[in-house]
Amino acid sequence: MRRALLAALLVALVVPGVAAAHATLLRATPAEQGRVEVAPTEIRLAFDQSVTAPPDAIVVLAADGRRLSGTVSQSARGTVIQTPVDGLVRREAYTVRWREVSADGHVGTGVFTFGVGVDPPPPTEAVGASGMTWRDDVARWALFASLALLVGVVGIRLLVLPRTVDPRVERRVHLLGVLGAVAAVNAGIVGFVIRSANALQVSGVDLLYADLSPFAESTRFGTAFLVTTLGFGACLTILAVAWVLDRPGLRWPAFLLALALVWSYPLSGHQATEPNASLVGQVADWVHLVTAMLWVGGVLTLAVVVWPLAPDLRRTAFLRFSRIAIGLVAALVVAGTVVAIERLPAVSDLWETSYGQILLAKIALVLLALAWGGIHHTFVRPRLERGERTPGVGRSLLGESAVAMAVLLAAAVLVNGAPPPVESDAGEAAPTRTAPG
Q: Residue 264 burial by CB count (10 A; 0-12/13-18/19+): exposed, middle or buried?
């Protein structure tokens, strides 16, 4: 059974999908996310096969939403579509939205930007792109929850639990780690597709044939998506091999790789693009995420692994986790404070901006979880040290886990939200992005 699972995972990772006979954009003039010094008079798109161009095959938009493109025509036996443009000026960026019908009948779409004498914004900031939605928040929350399994549960197994444990505990840790890696890969894919769909303004079947390459190649979140997808895929392979071959020690490289991959989120988030961004803030953001994953993972490990499967391990696991939990919470609070100071220009932003209000809600949830853990530390720990029975602790741990998941949801909303604008070096408020590029 375990060998069959490994074979299936390797096939899924190695064997590529069969591409449909759909047209692919080979090149654009001006280039996607390109910069030109002279305003073009025509936009040209070249495909790898003949396509049908509807009347709105190419739409060129100025920053204020004005349409600058004319009538679409085709050349090169239908493989090239072009449109004249008028009114482009220097020091401005423009959006190109295109669509075509391939020979297989599917509609392909895409969007990119270019600048005349300026660097263009990322395609996530193209004219007509929507901001973050609740779907982005759910996708990010699913990612954080999966990391609580991959980083948290696996990390707690390595750092807290004894070297030798009940085989049932080992199997469940293997299962949760593999599930966490699978969920992290898929949550990343879903989040990338949702963010791209927000800019493309398409959904359903049309999204399947949309050109997503500008988002993967020209945005911070696209780069992070490519790196983390490959990285978490490697983690999945390592954890699956550790499970199949019964080599728990192989979890270490997967755990350390996952820790390194978490660094991509501070680098691709809002804080990295703000005028007051600093290396200290990025390190604090990474510490905040890692300690949160380990804390949540520890509570989950006690609630769904140790308590139901290994009564003899409860005392040892609880006491060991209690000792490191104090350090995790301290690092979590300090790092979170550093991040909050950098992202909130004024204390009043806490109650006057939506970002600050969500942060207050997150702080309230964290305090509730800490109070819950404090009750466990004050009342449960002494009873376990004396070897007394502790009825109801398993259910209480599940409750604390639910609150921890709510904290992750609030964190996901914060990560996707735009912090209040800060003053640039010129003394003016810098523009706030709706989505980090």
A: buried
**Is 10 within the bounds of a domain?**
no
93, 125, 157 - which closes a domain: 125
User: Model-level pTM?
Assistant: 0.84
DSSP character string of 323-337:
HHHHHHHHHHHHHHH
Q: Which of 269, 258, 342, 323 is nearest to 293 (CA)?
A: 258
CA angle 374, 378, 380 (to 5 degrees): 105
Q: Scanning the structure block, which residue is given the tokens 């779907």?
A: 135
pLDDT per position as a tens digit, 311-351: 989 889 988 998 898 889 889 889 988 888 888 888 888 88
CATH number of the domain within which 90 lies: 2.60.40.1220
**Residues 50 and 79: beta-carbon distance below 8 Å:** yes
pLDDT tens column, 166-189: 999 999 999 999 999 999 999 999
How far apart (Å, rounded) are the C-alpha atoms in residues 8 and 384?
A: 43
- Residue range of the domain that includes 366: 134-416
For residue 267, CA distances in Å to 262, 264, 277 come to 9, 5, 10
Distance CA 95, CA 85 (A): 12
Number of domains present in the structure of the chain: 2
- Residue found by looking up tokens 């949801």 in the block: 409
Q: How far apart are CA 169 and CA 182, in angstroms?
A: 20
Distance of CA 70 to the CA centre of its chain: 39
